[in-house]
Amino acid sequence: MTPAARIAAAAEVLDAIATGLAAEQALSRWGRANRFAGSKDRAAIRDHVFDALRRRSSCAAWGGGLSGRALMLGLLRAEGRDPDEVFTGEGHAPAPLSPEERAAGDAPEGPAALDCPAWLSAELEASLGPDFEPVLKALQARADVFLRVNALKATREEACAALAAEGVEAEPFPLAPHALRVTAGARRIQATRAFAEGLVELQDAGSQAICEAIPLPAQGRVLDFCAGGGGKSLALAARAPALRYFAHDANPRRMNDIPARAARAGVEITRTEAPEGRFELVVADVPCSGSGAWRRQPEAKWQLDQDGLSALAATQAAILEEVAPRVAPQGRLAYVTCSLLDAENGAQAAGFLARNPGWQQESSLRLTPRDGGDGFFLAVFTRQGGA
Ligand SMILES: C[S@@+](CC[C@H](N)C(=O)[O-])C[C@H]1O[C@@H](n2cnc3c(N)ncnc32)[C@H](O)[C@@H]1O
Questions:
Q1: Is 250 near ligand 1, meaning CB less than 6 Å away?
Q2: 209-383 has which CATH code?
Q3: Can you cite a GO biological process for this protein (predicted)?
Q4: Is 257 assigned a ligand-binding role in the annotation?
Q5: Superfamily of domain covering 145-202
Q6: How confident is the model at residue 384 (pLDDT cuts 50, 70, 90)?
Q7: Among 195, 286, 281, which Cα is nearest to 240's?
């Protein structure tokens, strides 16, 4: 496919997303209907689609509308490219620009220039303070791909060498002690022996840094209460494999990959639908707005609304109340979000402490995309007394 045909395809996929399809779904549907497209074409189309979604409001301003065609036109203008070189109508290129399209479109202003949902702008600004603009700007760009080296199987240097032998270039990343930033060959990672043999696991560097900051007990049991695919338990188990790990999720199917991932990593994680007894550490990596990870899931940025945010905050508070009694005396509760919003982070931690006088906050950590990985929040609470 020519570069212009890829842009036309991206516009088509964006139109499908606008009808309510998830981006991944729309991309696979397009791929199935256009089998002639090779893997490089599909990757390029995907990049265009995600670039436009990340910068949807500024692209809409530059392009004069929210259709796929307008968004792609806006993306070209935002990047300082000449749309007439793409909108030629030749072959599978998009049709030439109409006089209306030429006249429409302007530089974005205010929250749109930062691709910040207007309704959330004040709340994000209050949460991020002076970081507001730089963080929002960081969220307009693609995220890096990160790996966590499994310290049980390799050093960072050994993992880099093993990956390089299979065409994946990676370098140590300072945010977390076992983090690697992939600089080339990211699409090959899951086909490498280094991955299959558990030397490395895909995990954002911010997520790794959060897992490193969770204090682990000397012995006993750890419950990952909102385990999903098990990313947090896998990282904790690599730090202290002698502890016993239990993974739980309200939607147990989300944990389907845990056995294979744990086997590759050489650790043991037991899935449970009904955790029993008390745990020395409970990790609650709660469902959240995902605002810290909007670079990877840009649709979420535009789907969130006030009702959704309030519902998430209520769920987070309810999960904290549900897990607190499962923590053993003197044990710890680690509350984690990948949110940038105080309503889901500091305010949630303060609410928990106000409702539960037998608890203290031991530490907290806030990361934003300015630190290099996704944005995260961690609050570690300790349970006082012997009851
Ligand atoms: C942020 S994701 C977890 C990501 C995962 N810990 C990881 O590191 O890969 C949140 C998870 O919480 C689960 N969840 C939602 N509500 C829940 C609840 N009330 N109790 C337990 N899990 C819940 C969701 O199904 C989802 O898998």
A1: yes
A2: 3.40.50.150
A3: RNA methylation
A4: no
A5: Sun protein; domain 3 (3.30.70.1170)
A6: confident
A7: 281
